[in-house]
């Protein structure tokens, strides 16, 4: 499912992620986007796609919004840290306990009733590869939402922290799956 509002696109993550979404005392962290894995719409985010946007936001002193289900009228927390690494776009922040929807989100996350992160962005630069997939090379990130139904099946975000060994196991599986897809197997 892809939604578009005024040029803003929403993509979600679901499946096996190298680092799960973690929640502890209202603090959450995880990968909001993974490089090299096609989503259900055939889009693939390239490493560095967020670099210019994140630099611009830092320079302007602005933050990416944390929303509930992409609803711009329902901010539920604050992303304190967002950065790119070799895996994707990592986010770390906290839910605002004084916001009713944030308390609901925390309860759902802790119970395992929801486990998705999703990004809202505008495409700045993209191209099609020989297989017809759209390769997203530069994105203007607007928001990262907690969602019920993410878009990228191969990248699961979990609501509870896993031991480090389990995280590394998920990373290894995700890398093998990506390598297999790239090799056409």
UniProtKB/TrEMBL annotation:
Pfam family, one: Peptidase_S78
The keyword RNA-binding belongs to this UniProt entry's keyword annotation: no
MF (Gene Ontology): peptidase activity
Database matches in InterPro entries: Peptidase_S78_dom (IPR054613), Prohead_protease (IPR006433)
Gene Ontology biological process: proteolysis
Keyword Transmembrane helix attached: no
UniProt keyword list: Hydrolase, Protease, Viral release from host cell
Domain called Prohead serine protease: residue spans: 27-161
Recorded superkingdom: Bacteria
Protein name from the UniProt record: HK97 family phage prohead protease
Species of the source: Thioclava kandeliae
